[in-house]
Specification:
heterotrimer, A alpha+beta, B alpha+beta, C alpha+beta, A: alpha+beta, Aminopeptidase, Elongation Factor Tu (Ef-tu), domain 3, eleven-stranded mixed β-sheet, six-stranded antiparallel β-sheet, 9 helices, C: alpha+beta, eight-stranded mixed β-sheet, 8 helices, 17 strands, 26% helix, 26% strand
């Protein structure tokens, strides 16, 4: 699954431009599903039969889009001004390498050299509006041969293993969820299951709304990445979740109050099988369940995430054993929910 | 006629925050069963009480969820950290008595180093708050309260001078009371329309129960029952013409919805024909189930009757009992009208 | 009536978000000759249908909203002045402005927003912007007369009619978005009896300014495969900054690229603009477009949406400004799109 994750995070796909990611996933799963189709937004649906039928329809989903940018305008000097697609703290952009437009032209974001700044200036962080991407062009005309207004701009970030079982890459949120789903689809299922690879999550859980409308499940399992703030200067109750403690189970977030009814029996089983998991201790943020669980006449919801440090930056950090524990719990949920 | 105070006490005793409405849902289902043809719950826990009738479908939601807290972390000394469920102003919660769903009582307080001077009040967040249940250690606390358990305000429900009712959760239990009163009034009346009384869930966190139940019911008209702020108290932040004891309001607009003119007219007609006092309501902040119904499917004509309430989302809200009773009268009179639109 | 006269009639008409029936009547009248049938639904949306005559054709919806920004009466003081709240209006343009109160029955009632008399101003006051809840509307009547005619909850709108400026520039209220409704009319005029391949659904929608519910309801009912939201976009003004989302005044229709104005659809529009030599501009729409496309895109099974914008200066003021050449070019692009589009992206 690590190799699969590596391939997935190295693909580029922001909200509205998920085509490459979707094509890759389609190729991976097409020989393992009974039904597969896309909708006008670009969500990818897959239905796989299991040994048994379910009484309560289950939808498992993860989103294909990552955070990134669109070219807002091109200056007369040929620099690219960006607007963000999804939430990005502009401070993580300075000094970064980027890939621009359909040709993936190399570009960099930086600010004038420190020697040329005053202490006062250095106190203020740059805003996205003041930053620009330099592709090495000297004019607007030259730039326009390679990149246009409206083109996507991505983080350029390699997949790197480091430290104690850790991985750094972009887009682990939520290609990890996609990787897990692909692995599950390639295996055998106990019960029939619907899988949805959603689009446009980062700009407001948009694709998930249509996913929920079309599949209209009774239970929704979302596989995501959750912000782990297990850092030295953060009080424990504000850390949300920590690396090394396994998959993260949500109790409540900005768009969903999770159902105890499905959560408790499954977590009991997880404990019995020695699967490591933790509760998320904060209630901010949201994921595709926010849209799915109130689509049409509604359904029950469960969110399971991997603790990820530095989410929404080019350098997400994952502790691999957490991914393994999350995967175990995901598979357990998919199996046990058939008996609910 | 049913007694407003008694009903409110009963509902408050069973009330829990958004997502945990099962207890109060049971209490309400028992009470309303004799007034309708069928009672059932849906995927999000909404209680739907259907009184079959000819004519068009009318959906009338009052929400049974409350704002409250959920335990997210128990620290080494047995103090419980919580997150809010629904809109809670953290600095207003200091020293409030609370009660967990299993009866365990406590007080919500604020970290010593938090600054409560007026400038910093708004910056106080739930992460600065904790609940003290009197436990001496983490183990003791864990034996009483589990992570994920919810808590509500543990304050009194009583009637004070001039028939004013003081209680936690007038938002929106007092409107559930009003809805029940209307159901009782219509119990033996031949229905003109197909009536769906809905005790909705998760309104406080985004009108979620109303969204799914409106989709399911697919009504022709929606009339919600919720509370609205007033302008007749000192230091009112937003001027409003609405006051306590002058009748329920007919909502024109709140932050989530502009009521359809047909719905406003429908309610005004009923009020005038039956001599029920009413006020015009424009609420600049706050949303209601009205919006959820209006945006369903191909659009629904929607309006709302509000019970004017002081100190909304504080541990002790206040209403005039006459307003509660008149709201019920107005709703009952309105839904007996033929729908011409 | 000429095209310009129809545009003037439409923008001068009254129809604040939530109360669009009056302007809907006028829009329906204007649309009628160009479609097979037209109706006004219970929400006040105008809907016109024009079949292409081919079985199994895809459905293409063209939407422009008819509602204008406005106000509501919130209180009547004992002196007969009105307090009000605003929906979508910058309070800085209200002092001394001319408004009409629209009572349920009877003629609009003219009023002026009070401004502080000079001798009562403290030094520095004139540099501060007055918050709306401190403003008052003077309708020139004593309390007893006011309460006979006006109720809390009555709507208020800008009072001025459209104005001609140099060349083909026009300025008025409600150019947002009725000028775009007229671009659709122009498109249908140019289309005439030409052949086309998609069934057309023309919508003059309600409540865009307060969330887009009118168009969302029509998307649910009519189930289009494709929907183009034609709304106004900000044209550069003398006080714009480089990072503002603005385009050139007179530069032609603005085609949006992004999740809410999907790239395939946008590329098609650009292709057609180039092929037919229609001036056009491109803008990045990274998330919500601020148009009806946002609410329509995720209705039920999902709809492919495109945002095409008309450059407009001073949006949400009583003096919104456009140039007719942009209006005609948006219409032309829509017409050519209708003629070239085979229903597949």
């Amino acid at each position: 699954m690590k190799e699969l994750l590596k391939k997935l995070v190295m693909l580029d796909g922001i909200a509205g431009y998920e085509d490459d990611v979707r094509e890759f996933i389609e190729n991976e799963i097409k020989d393992h599903v009974d039904e597969m189709f896309t909708d006008p937004m670009g969500n990818l649906y897959a239905f796989k039969k299991g040994a048994k039928r379910r009484e309560k329809k289950l939808l498992v989903s993860a989103h294909m889009d990552e955070v990134g940018f669109l070219v807002h305008s091109i200056t007369e000097d040929g620099m690219l001004k960006l607007s963000q697609v999804g939430g990005v703290d502009p401070r993580v952009l300075v000094g970064r390498r980027m890939k621009c437009g359909p040709q993936k032209v190399n570009g960099i974001i930086s600010i004038k050299a420190i020697h040329l700044t005053t202490p006062e200036e250095r106190k203020v962080a740059p805003t996205l509006g003041s930053l620009y991407v330099d592709i090495g062009s000297s004019s607007k005309k030259q730039t326009e041969q390679y990149v246009r207004v409206g083109d996507p701009v991505y983080f350029d970030s390699d997949f790197i293993e480091f430290g104690d079982n850790r991985i750094k890459a972009k887009a682990i949120d939520d290609r990890l969820g996609c990787a897990m789903m692909i692995e599950i689809i390639k295996g055998e299922l106990e019960y029939d299951t619907w899988f949805g690879f959603s689009v446009q999550e980062e700009i407001g859980i948009r694709g998930a709304r249509v996913l929920g409308n079309r599949v209209n499940p009774d239970i929704s399992l979302v596989l995501e990445g959750s912000t782990a703030a297990d850092l030295p200067n953060v009080p424990v109750h504000s850390q949300a979740c920590a690396q090394g403690k396994g998959g993260v189970v949500s109790l409540i977030d900005g768009r969903t109050v999770y159902d105890r009814e499905i959560r408790e029996p499954i977590l009991k089983k997880a404990d019995a099988e020695g699967i490591k998991w933790q509760y998320k201790t904060t209630s901010t943020g949201a994921n595709d369940n926010g849209a799915i669980h109130i689509a049409k006449d509604g359904c029950m919801a469960f969110s399971l995430s991997a603790p990820l440090r530095y989410i929404h930056s080019a350098a997400n950090v994952l502790y691999w054993p957490d991914a393994e524990e999350m995967f175990k719990l995901a598979k357990l949920f998919i199996k046990e929910s058939g008996a609910l | 006629m049913l007694n407003v105070l008694e009903l409110q006490k009963k509902l408050v005793a069973a009330a829990l925050p958004s997502g945990f409405e099962h207890k109060v849902a049971e209490v309400i289902s028992e009470i309303v069963k004799p007034y309708v043809d069928e009672v059932y719950t849906d995927a999000l826990g909404n209680v739907i009480a259907h009184k079959k009738g000819p004519g068009k479908k009318i959906m009338m939601p009052a929400h049974m969820d409350t704002i409250g807290f959920m335990a997210t972390y128990i620290d080494d000394k047995g103090f419980i950290r919580v997150t809010n469920i629904g809109g809670i102003s953290a600095s207003n919660m200091v020293a409030t008595p609370v009660r967990f769903e299993n009866g365990v009582k406590g007080i919500i307080q604020i970290e010593g180093k938090a600054d409560l001077t007026s400038a910093a009040r708004n910056a106080v967040a739930m992460t600065n708050m904790f609940i003290d249940i009197g436990a001496k250690s983490k183990e003791e606390a864990e034996s009483l309260v589990e992570i994920g358990m919810v808590a509500v305000f543990d304050t009194e429900t009583k009637v004070i001078f001039n028939d004013h009712l003081v209680s936690p959760y007038c938002d929106d239990l007092i409107c559930c009371v009003s809805l029940i009163l209307a159901m009782e009034q219509l119990k033996d009346v031949e229905p003109v329309n197909d009536l769906y009384y809905v005790f909705s869930t998760q309104e406080e966190v985004g009108l979620r129960g109303a969204i799914t139940s409106a989709y399911h019911i697919d009504p022709d008209l929606g009339i919600a029952l919720d509370v609205c702020s007033v302008g007749d108290i000192p230091a009112v932040s937003v001027p409003m013409v609405v006051g306590l004891g002058k009748g329920p309001t007919i909502k024109i607009k709140d932050a989530s919805v502009i009521c359809n003119p047909q719905a406003v007219e429908f309610l005004r007609k009923a009020a005038k024909a039956n001599n029920i006092p009413y006020q015009n309501e424009i609420l600049l902040a706050g949303g209601t189930d009205t919006a959820a119904m209006q945006k369903t499917r191909g659009g629904v004509i929607a309006g709302c009757i509000s019970v004017p309430t002081r100190y909304i989302h504080s541990p002790q809200e206040m209403v005039a009992i006459s307003d509660v009773e008149n709201a019920a009268k107005l709703l009952a009179a309105a839904v007996c009208q033929k729908i011409e639109f | 009536m000429t095209f310009k006269e129809k545009l003037q009639k439409l923008v001068n008409a009254y129809g604040v978000s939530g109360d669009e029936f009056r302007v809907a009547e006028i829009a329906a009248e204007i649309l009628k000759p160009y479609v097979d049938k037209v109706e006004i639904d219970k929400l006040g949306n105008v809907v016109g249908y024009k079949s292409c005559g081919k079985p199994g054709a895809k459905k293409l919806m063209l939407d422009a909203h008819l509602d204008q920004i406005g106000f509501l009466v919130t209180d009547i003081t004992k002196e007969g002045f009105l307090r009000f709240m605003a929906m979508g209006v910058d309070p800085r343009m209200l002092l001394g402005s001319e408004l009409n109160v629209i009572p349920k029955n009877g003629e609009p009632i003219y009023g002026i927003v009070c401004s502080t008399p000079p001798h009562l101003q403290k030094p520095g006051d004139s540099a501060k912007s007055v918050p709306i809840d401190q403003m008052l509307l003077d309708v020139g009547m004593p309390y007893e007369q006011v309460i006979e005619k006006i109720e809390v909850g009555d709507y208020i709108a800008f009072a001025n009619d459209a104005l001609d400026l140099l060349g083909d520039c026009m300025s008025g209220k409600s150019m947002d978005d009725r000028a775009c409704f007229m671009t659709i009319i122009h498109a249908l005029e140019l289309l005439g009896d030409s052949e086309f391949d998609c069934d057309l659904i023309i919508v003059g929608s309600t409540k865009e300014e307060v969330g887009g519910h009118g168009a969302m309801a029509r998307a649910y009912i009519d189930k289009p495969d494709y929907a183009i939201a034609i709304d106004v976009g900000h044209a550069k003004t003398a006080d714009s900054t480089p990072m503002d989302r603005t385009q050139e005044f007179g530069g032609g229709p603005i085609i949006g690229f992004g999740a809410n104005s999907i790239p395939k659809f946008a590329r098609k529009a650009v292709e057609i603009a180039r092929a037919k030599e229609i001036p056009y501009q491109v803008e990045a729409i990274p998330a919500a477009s601020g148009t009806n496309a946002w609410s329509m895109q995720i209705v039920e099974d999902g709809i492919s949406t495109l945002v095409v914008s008309l450059p407009l200066r001073y949006m949400h003021s009583p003096v919104e400004m456009l140039t007719l050449s942009d209006v005609y070019n948006v219409g032309k692009l829509l017409c050519e799109f209708i003629k070239s589009f085979d229903g597949q992206l």
